[in-house]
């Protein structure tokens, strides 16, 4: 590293350098950023990331929120924005695709936060919003509708925003608080519109006007003074109002049966997943709708957006020959003769789930291996790595179980141990860590007699009177037991007597101490 | 052409878990087998019986013969271990930070090379039993093979690195795999002109070392280990590749349970054998090429639903016929 570069690096982390802070980067983040080249930090992050990757693979099915935890961790430790973007996409897909996800996460704040982040940074936010609504995710949250409307408002689409809020009100009709929040936001938007801070796109207004002119000429004249209902007749001729534009509609999401609306509220998505967050801000959006326009929208019931521009389609294996028939590769990498040059192949489609979905749609191929598990995290893994992780888990579990079993003693084992220790005269309750130690601390003079049934760690000091009483009660109990066996044979009586005597002897021994 | 089981022997006392690797000794009489049951076994390939075994601390992922009396193995225990077969002694040569995924012996350099998930390859000296040098690969190493002075390393994220063993200071070539999906196995042509690699998604690619445009134009990939099932194509991983030293042809084994032999230069399939009980996890030709060892064992590569029966690992040694492995051009 040159001197200048080093100085720049030093300056970057200085508190006097306000530029990063102006951009909203916190001191913590900057401190971590400065550390990212530290080998120790890198090693720690690598280790932790491996752990997360494994956890995601094996726990995500039961606990999909682990995706959120992983993403939260990655946000603080991974500085590769592209990787973060992929992880965000995978996390969102992982949660939404999980079992009963709608019931479990349909109103979850954390998932919603993840979702809003994805929408914030996505250029195809309309697709994502439309998809999520069709799957009924977050529709019972006022925030969902306000964020959606807000995005339209920012992009000078107040009519779309208005339509979305109207739709939101329908969903939130039964939820007073949420509805109030939505209406408050709506009234604020109205104020902004009134103040001229938010408005409809000029281009839309122009096209609206021209359409209005056309409609006027074809439509029969309306009675003078007729009221125009805003909700009932959005296409109505409202003075100074704005109208929907069928051309601008995100009609690629619509079903045939449903009417056209401005904001893409209609229709349903056939896909099970969130659309890939592919059109990142700052990158040119080259995905054109030409294909759809050429054929017209009539025959299209559902639409899958075009694949990511991040996929670089240089396919050496594009020839889908039959099994065993060998195909020729391209010679694209053979320029630069005479010198060794990196040969670039096709970039892996990071949005694997999207790709897989397309393949499923084709219904022609079936992958006979754990494709999802292999590509689940940020890093791909091999079958052997998956198995190794399972193996190490099983070893850990077995060790933990063994350790736990060592500490668990059955009552019979405990008794045997104690008898053994008594025989050796080694019994020392203070040194024992088993179940008896708490008893020693808890017993009081009042329940002293009850201790006769077990081992007494240490006889507490008691009054002589009580001691005497105690002995008398023991003797009485022995007598009672003997009396209970009037006609029993000696064989039967003997053990009982012996047991009773032993008990008494032990008691006396304790008392005498 | 499909071939049956009339020319093959099933070995007794097969491993109890997945078979990781197979290798014949120089005479072709002994077969070394590493397995996930943590045992290194040596079989008498002629008699089809187990001669001896060594217990390791953890599953073994690869093993090789240094000479007829010494074997090396590595696996999840992260240790490179050298076994003296006659004396039944094992010696820990060194360690990696992560599991050792693959090992290979360089005839030219007389050293053993290990690749690991710690993203490094390490060269070991069998004479001094010590590490010679380690080189970072920037990704987890999945497969390695060597021929002459060339060492080919296949890593995660579909990277292929080609090293010259005479100068390990710089990597000679770095390539992205010609295949779209994860590299599973790499084997070099015995004549040293290139290598073949199998991917997780039923394809094999043939690549050449020479970067000359004319040579590079010859590289290609082909589909294999796929089954048609009611108009749906089932795609299986290619788990194993093995070269015939004499004819430069190779065999491939996939999770579909089939073994095929291929003529890489003439782009022809030479033979396809019967379906084995489960996935083909390892293959090895004997040095003279008259035998092919086939390890059939489930690799846990797919979720087994319900009570589906998983066949036990099995080992076979097949006596090769010229028709199965000899290129058609030579036959005529």
Spell out the key features of this protein:
heterodimer; A: 513 residues; mainly alpha; 21 helices; 2 strands; extended; B: 332 residues; mainly beta; Methylamine Dehydrogenase, Chain H; five-stranded mixed β-sheet; globular; Oidioi.mRNA.OKI2018_I69.PAR.g13102.t1.cds (chain A); Mad3/Bub1_I (chain A)
Structure in words:
The complex is a heterodimer of chains A (513) and B (332). In chain A, 53% of the residues lie in helices and 1% in strands. Chain A is mainly alpha-helical and 513 residues long. Chain A is extended. Chain B is globular and about 55 Å long. Chain B contains 3 helices and 31 strands. The longest helix of chain B has 4 residues, at 213-216. Chain B has helices spanning 213-216, 322-325, 328-331; strands at residues 2-3, 8-10, 19-24, 30-35, 39-44, 49-55, 60-67, 70-75, 79-84, 89-95, 100-106, 111-116, 120-125, 130-136, 141-147, 150-155, 159-164, 173-176, 183-188, 194-199, 203-208, 220-223, 226-229, 232-235, 238-243, 250-254, 259-263, 268-273, 280-285, 291-296, 314-319. Classes of the chains: A mainly alpha (513), B mainly beta (332). Chains A and B meet through strand 1, strand 2 and helix 17 of A and strand 18, strand 22 and strand 24 of B. Strand 1 (326-328) of chain A pairs antiparallel with strand 22 of chain B.
Topology:
The complex is a heterodimer of chains A (513) and B (332).
Chain A: H1 3-13, H2 19-22, H3 27-35, H4 39-59, H5 66-77, H6 81-96, H7 101-105, H8 109-121, H9 125-134, H10 142-154, H11 158-171, H12 176-194, H13 202-218, H14 290-295, E1 326-328, H15 352-362, E2 365-367, H16 371-374, H17 383-407, H18 411-424, H19 436-442, H20 464-483, H21 490-512
Chain B: E1 2-3, E2 8-10, E3 19-24, E4 30-35, E5 39-44, E6 49-55, E7 60-67, E8 70-75, E9 79-84, E10 89-95, E11 100-106, E12 111-116, E13 120-125, E14 130-136, E15 141-147, E16 150-155, E17 159-164, E18 173-176, E19 183-188, E20 194-199, E21 203-208, H1 213-216, E22 220-223, E23 226-229, E24 232-235, E25 238-243, E26 250-254, E27 259-263, E28 268-273, E29 280-285, E30 291-296, E31 314-319, H2 322-325, H3 328-331
Parallel strand pairs in B: 1-28
Antiparallel strand pairs in B: 2-31, 3-4, 4-5, 5-6, 7-8, 8-9, 9-10, 11-12, 12-13, 13-14, 15-16, 16-17, 17-18, 19-20, 20-21, 21-22, 23-24, 25-26, 26-27, 27-28, 29-30, 30-31
């Amino acid at each position: 590293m040159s001197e200048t570069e080093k100085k720049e690096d030093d300056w970057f982390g200085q508190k006097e350098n306000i530029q990063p802070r102006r951009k909203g980067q916190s001191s913590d983040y900057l401190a971590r950023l400065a550390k990212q080249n530290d080998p120790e930090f890198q090693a720690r992050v690598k280790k932790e990331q491996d752990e997360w990757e494994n956890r995601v693979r094996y726990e995500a099915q039961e606990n999909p929120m682990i995706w959120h935890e992983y993403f939260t961790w990655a946000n603080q430790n991974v500085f590769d924005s592209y990787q973060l973007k992929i992880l965000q996409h995978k996390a969102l897909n992982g949660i939404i695709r999980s079992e009963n996800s709608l019931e479990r996460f349909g109103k979850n704040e954390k998932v919603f936060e993840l979702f809003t982040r994805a929408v914030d940074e996505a250029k195809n936010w309309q697709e994502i919003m439309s998809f999520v609504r069709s799957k009924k995710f977050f529709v019972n949250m006022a925030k969902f509708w306000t964020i959606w409307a807000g995005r339209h408002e920012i992009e000078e689409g107040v009519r779309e925003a208005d339509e979305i809020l109207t739709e939101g009100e329908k969903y939130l009709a039964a939820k007073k608080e949420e509805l109030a929040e939505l209406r408050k936001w709506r009234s604020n938007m109205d104020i902004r519109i009134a103040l001229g801070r938010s408005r409809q796109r000029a281009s839309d207004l122009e096209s609206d006007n021209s359409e209005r002119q056309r409609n006027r000429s074809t439509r029969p004249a309306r009675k003078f003074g007729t009221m125009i209902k805003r909700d009932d007749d959005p296409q109505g001729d409202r003075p100074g109002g704005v109208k929907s534009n069928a051309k601008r509609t995100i009609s690629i999401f619509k079903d045939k049966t449903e009417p056209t609306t401005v904001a893409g509220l209609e229709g349903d998505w056939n896909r099970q997943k969130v659309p890939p967050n592919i059109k990142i801000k700052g990158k040119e959006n080259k995905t054109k709708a030409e294909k759809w326009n050429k054929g017209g929208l009539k025959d299209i019931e559902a639409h899958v957006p075009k694949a990511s521009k991040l996929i670089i389609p240089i396919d050496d294996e594009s020839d889908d020959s039959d099994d065993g028939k060998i195909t020729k590769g391209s010679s694209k990498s053979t320029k630069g003769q005479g010198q060794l040059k990196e040969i670039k192949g096709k970039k892996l489609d990071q949005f694997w789930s999207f790709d897989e979905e397309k393949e499923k749609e084709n219904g022609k191929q079936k992958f006979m291996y754990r494709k999802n598990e292999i590509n689940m995290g940020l890093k791909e893994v091999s079958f052997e790595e998956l198995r190794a992780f399972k193996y190490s888990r099983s070893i850990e579990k077995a060790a933990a179980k063994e350790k736990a079993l060592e500490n668990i003693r059955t009552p019979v084992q405990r008794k045997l141990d104690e008898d053994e220790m008594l025989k050796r005269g080694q019994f020392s309750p203070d040194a024992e860590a088993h179940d008896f130690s708490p008893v020693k601390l808890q017993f009081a003079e009042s329940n002293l007699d009850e201790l006769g049934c077990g081992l007494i760690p240490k006889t507490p000091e008691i009054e002589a009177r009580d001691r005497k009483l105690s002995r008398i009660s023991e003797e009485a109990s022995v007598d009672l037991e003997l009396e209970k066996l009037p006609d029993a044979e000696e064989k039967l009586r003997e053990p009982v007597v012996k047991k009773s005597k032993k008990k008494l002897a032990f008691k006396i021994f304790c008392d005498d101490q | 052409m499909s071939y049956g089981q009339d020319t093959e022997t099933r070995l007794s006392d097969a491993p109890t878990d997945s078979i990781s690797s197979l290798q014949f000794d120089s005479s072709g009489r002994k077969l070394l087998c590493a397995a996930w049951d943590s045992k290194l076994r040596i079989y008498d390939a002629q008699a089809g019986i187990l001669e001896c075994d060594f217990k390791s601390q953890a599953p073994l992922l690869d093993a090789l013969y240094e000479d007829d009396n010494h074997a090396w193995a590595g696996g999840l225990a992260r240790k490179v271990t050298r076994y003296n077969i006659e004396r039944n002694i094992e010696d820990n040569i060194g360690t990696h930070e992560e599991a050792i995924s693959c090992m290979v012996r360089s005839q030219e350099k007389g050293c053993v090379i290990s690749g690991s998930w710690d993203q490094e390859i390490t060269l070991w000296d069998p004479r001094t039993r010590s590490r010679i040098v380690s080189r970072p690969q920037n990704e987890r190493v999945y497969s390695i093979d060597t021929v002459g002075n060339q060492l080919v390393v296949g890593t995660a994220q579909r990277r292929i690195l080609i090293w010259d063993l005479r100068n390990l200071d710089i990597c000679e070539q770095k390539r992205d795999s010609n295949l779209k999906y994860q590299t599973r196995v790499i084997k070099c042509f015995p004549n040293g002109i290139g290598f073949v690699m199998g991917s997780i998604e039923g394809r094999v690619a043939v690549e050449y070392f020479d970067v000359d445009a004319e040579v590079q134009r010859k590289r290609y990939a082909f589909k294999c280990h796929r089954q048609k099932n009611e108009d749906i194509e089932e795609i299986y991983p290619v788990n194993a590749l093995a070269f015939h030293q004499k004819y430069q042809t190779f065999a491939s084994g996939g999770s579909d349970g089939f073994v095929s032999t291929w003529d890489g230069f003439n782009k022809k399939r030479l033979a396809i054998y019967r379906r084995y009980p489960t996935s083909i996890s390892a293959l090895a030709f004997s040095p003279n090429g008259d035998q092919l060892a086939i390890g059939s064992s489930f690799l846990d590569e797919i979720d087994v639903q319900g009570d589906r029966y998983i066949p036990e690992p099995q080992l076979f040694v097949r006596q090769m016929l010229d028709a199965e492995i000899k290129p058609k051009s030579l036959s005529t």
